[in-house]
Write a sequence for this structure.
């Protein structure tokens, strides 16, 4: 690393932010059309993702070049770190929303539907055959389904993700000890475990749809099960892509024991996804 | 308040000023991005205001004259969304962009490219919102969004595809605000000039620090809620459907967990602006700086835990509504503290009454009035009477127009000379102020009576017994609307020329921003200023 500049780095005008907005707009515009069964929706989504991938290479490419040129001082590094922490904070609240919804639907809405307190009369008239158990649908859905068991694939997946948390720490040790072989092995193991997790999750979804008749339409159990595990799986996938980028940069030897914020940011994100899974395993599968 | 002396201020930088359209589209400069935010918010203000004019024209007389009921409901919905997300929040964000780096002696926002991305996400959201309004007029476009800005299911599940565009509008707005908030927090925590502690920071920065934190906490749940709505609409889930074991109330909780703190998101930046204007024109330091910061923190944190006072009439348990009532009333303590600190700042000050100060005093009076009707509404037995009536409409317009919008107008008059280098026309500023005060009160004061007499909100037609007050209200709203033509004229005139403003635009103003030329050069504080603070003033 060259000499640290004393001034805070100010980037020149950059086309990437507005390209990022255009690509996300295209994806969401396409999605709004697609959910209504309108044909060009899919095209906008595909174009949006293509533009978004191009953008990621370009924008992060700029950042990597600036970093390698030694334009960033500790203040800039600290801005990146704090930014990542607040981003993960917002993600925490995103997941808390769905955990909160699960809690509400299992407890509060159960009280309303089973006629607790002053609602007893309403319950008697409207749904006197409906009693609150979990897992359940609601008083208006009669279709049967089998809930997902915790002690099969989900328990194995818990071990997979926890192990991946260990392997990424192993890679970090390698990085700090300037042992590039350990770094690369650790990263490859982490990516492999992440992909294994996603594959097993996809297999589990297939089982649920084909064997258990557990679908998005299976009342609140199906709704909360799929939205929580689905958003989590999406985050694991994004995390695996980020890890792959870090692996590529490790092959190029970009990281030094002093300067490897990108690695740490991805590691934080990975641990965050890990913790969310523990919550999922307890509140969605076990309880 | 900080009284700063600068040992060393280095202006201009190694980067030249970019030219042409690239300067704006690809901008990484906090001043340019701030300007773009302000221009967009002005456009949205006129769009949302035009909708308000249509609504009041329709309500001038009983009966249905101008609009179809669905279109009327759509205008009510979009008026709210545009004013909240398109006018007030971007204007506050624009001022944050312009002023926070100048106030804390930072060279720019901490993450300049992400700053630009937040702004363009806002533009994308505005575009998506316009699409959602246009779609129902196309063949096969379905019904317009007629739910009101709260988007409650089951009605929002039944609306046509324009609701999907609105859902994605919310996602875009959420991304925009979260990125902007991250940037503001990081700038404030990481980029202050050496020697400026958190408790030496100008109060506007504190107000935005609390606001940005609130946004990071409340926007993800809103995004999550509309995502569940999307799934209920198209993928057969049952989150808000009692038949599948869900509950429409869940959406109300999630919405108001966002929606109530959102009020403080709108309010706090304007309160921060007042914390600069009042000391400047009273020529006294802010009274009780520490308690003002504490009050803002208290408003932010308590504000996160009182959302269900919007749901008193939905059948929540007595224990729940009692808790939410007490929590809500408790908030009036820190809000009252803010108001009293501002009044105490004026006490025995050498006051002058330029336009920003006139607005500040008007805000304190009218916002307190809105706060008092808020306490009335927070009281459960009262609320059961006032709920969903025009009293509520009058209340939140008294809270939000003075509390948020007029505070931003005050900020515009206060900082416009700094931004442009030209003084605005004081006579026109005062004409604007009085038109606003007369128009606003004439519009919304009679609505209290309408509500207490039983006129419900969100309907296109009303009982003829409500005619007189509705006519007064509509006439007031046209004065209020016309005032904004004066506002636009003042802004355009100031941007194009006028008396030169010196560095220290206002005699009594303190802070780093007044040590810079007006307008400040493209890059400021590329080398951080050294700050020696006069602690005794805190």
């Amino acid at each position: 690393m060259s000499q640290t500049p004393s001034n805070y780095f100010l980037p020149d005008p950059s086309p990437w932010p507005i390209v990022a907005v255009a690509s996300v707009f295209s994806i969401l515009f396409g999605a709004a059309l697609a959910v209504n069964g309108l044909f060009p929706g899919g095209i906008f989504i595909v174009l949006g993702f293509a533009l978004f991938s191009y953008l990621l290479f370009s924008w992060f490419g700029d950042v990597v070049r600036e970093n390698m040129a030694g334009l960033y001082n500790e203040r800039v590094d600290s801005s990146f770190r704090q930014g990542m922490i607040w981003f993960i904070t917002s993600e925490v609240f995103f997941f808390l929303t769905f955990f909160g919804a699960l809690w509400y639907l299992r407890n509060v809405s159960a009280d309303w539907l089973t006629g607790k307190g002053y609602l007893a009369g309403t319950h008697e008239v409207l749904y006197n055959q409906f009693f609150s158990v979990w897992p359940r649908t609601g008083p208006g859905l009669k279709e049967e389904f089998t809930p997902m068991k915790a002690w099969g694939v989900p328990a194995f997946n818990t071990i997979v993700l926890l192990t991946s948390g260990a392997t990424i720490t192993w890679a970090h040790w390698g990085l700090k000890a300037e042992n590039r072989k350990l770094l690369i092995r650790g990263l490859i193991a982490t990516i492999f475990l992440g992909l294994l997790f996603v594959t097993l999750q996809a297999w589990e979804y297939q089982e649920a749809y084909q064997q258990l008749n557990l679908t998005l339409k299976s009342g609140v159990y199906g709704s909360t099960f799929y939205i929580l595990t689905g958003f989590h799986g999406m985050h694991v996938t994004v995390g695996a892509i980020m890890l792959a980028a870090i692996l590529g940069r490790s092959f190029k030897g970009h990281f030094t024991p002093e300067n490897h914020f990108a690695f740490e940011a991805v590691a934080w994100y990975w641990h965050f996804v890990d913790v969310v899974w523990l919550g999922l395993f307890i509140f969605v599968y076990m309880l | 308040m900080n009284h700063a002396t600068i040992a060393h201020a280095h202006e201009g930088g190694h980067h030249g000023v970019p030219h042409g359209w690239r300067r704006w589209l690809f901008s990484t400069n906090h001043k340019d991005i701030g300007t773009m935010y302000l221009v967009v918010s002005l456009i949205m203000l006129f769009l949302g205001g035009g909708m308000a004019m249509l609504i009041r024209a329709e309500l001038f007389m009983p009966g249905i004259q101008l609009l179809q009921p669905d279109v009327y409901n759509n205008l009510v919905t979009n008026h709210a969304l545009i004013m909240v997300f398109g006018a007030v929040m971007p204007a506050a964000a624009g001022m944050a962009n312009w002023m926070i780096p100048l106030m804390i002696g930072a060279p720019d926002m901490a993450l300049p490219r992400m700053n630009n991305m937040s702004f363009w996400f806002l533009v994308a959201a505005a575009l998506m919102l316009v699409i959602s309004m246009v779609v129902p007029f196309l063949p096969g476009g379905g019904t317009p969004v007629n739910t009101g800005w709260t988007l409650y299911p089951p009605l929002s599940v039944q609306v046509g595809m324009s609701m999907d565009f609105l859902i994605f509008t919310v996602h875009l707005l959420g991304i925009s605000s979260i990125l902007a908030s991250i940037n503001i927090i990081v700038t404030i925590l990481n980029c202050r000039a050496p020697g400026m502690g958190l408790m030496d920071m100008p109060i506007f920065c504190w107000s935005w620090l609390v606001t940005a934190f609130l946004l990071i906490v409340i926007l993800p749940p809103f995004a999550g809620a509309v995502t569940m709505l999307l799934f209920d609409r198209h993928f057969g889930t049952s989150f808000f459907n009692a038949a599948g074991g869900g509950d429409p109330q869940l959406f109300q909780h999630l919405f108001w967990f966002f929606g109530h703190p959102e009020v403080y998101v709108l309010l706090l930046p304007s309160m921060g602006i007042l914390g600069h204007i009042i000391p400047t024109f009273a020529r006294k330091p802010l009274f009780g700086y520490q308690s003002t910061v504490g009050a803002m923190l208290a408003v932010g944190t308590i504000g996160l835990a009182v959302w269900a006072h919007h749901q008193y009439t939905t059948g929540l348990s007595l224990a729940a509504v009692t808790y939410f009532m007490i929590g809500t009333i408790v908030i009036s303590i820190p809000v009252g503290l803010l108001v009293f600190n501002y009044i105490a700042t004026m006490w025995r000050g050498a006051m002058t009454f330029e336009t920003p100060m006139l607005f500040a005093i008007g805000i304190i009076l009218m916002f307190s009035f809105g706060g008092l009707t808020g306490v009335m509404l927070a009281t459960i037995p009262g609320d059961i009477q006032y709920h969903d009536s025009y009293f509520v409409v009058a209340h939140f317009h008294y809270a939000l127009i003075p509390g948020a919008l007029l505070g931003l107008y005050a900020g515009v008059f206060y900082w416009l000379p700094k931004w442009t280098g030209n003084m605005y026309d004081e006579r026109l500023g005062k004409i604007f102020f009085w038109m606003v005060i007369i128009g606003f009160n004439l519009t919304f004061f009679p609505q209290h009576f309408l509500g207490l007499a039983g006129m419900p909100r969100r309907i296109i037609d009303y009982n003829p017994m409500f005619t007189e007050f509705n006519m007064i209200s509509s006439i007031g709203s046209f004065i209020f609307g016309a005032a904004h033509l004066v506002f636009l004229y003042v802004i355009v005139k100031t941007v194009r020329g006028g008396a030169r403003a010196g560095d220290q635009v206002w005699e009594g103003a303190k802070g780093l921003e007044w040590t810079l030329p007006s307008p400040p050069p493209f890059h400021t504080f590329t080398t951080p200023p050294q700050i020696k603070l006069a602690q005794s003033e805190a």
